[in-house]
């Protein structure tokens, strides 16, 4: 059997015990031979990068001569086309996630490094970086992620996401709507277009293999810059979305579109926190009635804790019944502790009456529902999100 080619790795780590442990684990990893060079500070590490073409860099962000995100930024500038894997402790995991969002290929918690996985994780990061470099000749965006989650099931989140995505694409922007569901699909029904491939196709493969080509193949193109990825179509394809899959999918999606809208399951899942932390803004979709208010009040504290950024969570109120006036929008916002972006009138009659495959915001643009969606699109993309006046 042909032996896998050698991996060349630069380890930048100031703690000798940690460096020796990592070198030991890499030497005993089996399968892929690994050549490791160790640098104990950033200056030495940058010098080694200038001297040799390493495939991967294992990088501790807190070094004697550099700390925090700046450490990663210096290495990425020096090695823009190499795989960079951040090493961190549990207490610095938020910093590691920031580095991943800034372009790191992976992060590893030192205390969780295990012999059988380390070489594999490095090899996956190198392959992911290779695919990213191959795609670099194509148009690459740095789009925004907007997430939407219902206060409870049936709040109208999916209808909102589909129509809002279509509205955002109208001014010439590229928009992707993703139904991040572990089971069933409403996108296919609302868009009247069963897909050939859906999100389950991506979930069958390791997160490390998520590429632009793979994601693009699962997107349906509805014209005008609007594309959508449906949830699973068959019961045998139902499977949970892991945080690693969500991170990889969103990382690719933001390079493909100006805006990516995520339809998040109303029941908290392992991937929920990852999606919300990757999002520029999170919208809680609330039915405008007593049950909707109670569900939203129960869920809002957890959402705000996951997002952990002031002003990055808001609410949209959905009127399922005409002329509903349970509470004013400002009173809803006061009780929820967040701003309200809009109040959406009923749309069930539009779907019942329409034969068009287009969302109502495109097929029936002059209705109150469509005009509200257009206003929401402007409020969400006007730089900082604009809430309704109190």
What does it look like?
With 390 residues, this protein is α/β, with parallel strands linked by helices. It has two domains: 7-137, Response regulator (Rossmann fold); 144-380, P-loop containing nucleotide triphosphate hydrolases (Rossmann fold, 3-Layer(aba) Sandwich), CATH 3.40.50.300. The protein contains 16 helices and 13 strands. Strands 8-9-7-10-6-11-12-13 form an eight-stranded mixed β-sheet, sandwiched between helices. It has a five-stranded parallel β-sheet with strand order 2-1-3-4-5, sandwiched between helices. Helix 1 (16-27) links the parallel strand 1 and strand 2. Helix 2 runs parallel beside helix 3 and helix 10 (243-256) packs parallel to helix 11. The longest helix is centred in the N-terminal third of the chain and has 20 residues, at 115-134. The radius of gyration is 23 Å and the shape is elongated.
Characterize this entry briefly.
By secondary structure, this protein is an alpha/beta fold. It contains 16 helices and 13 strands. The mean pLDDT is 86.
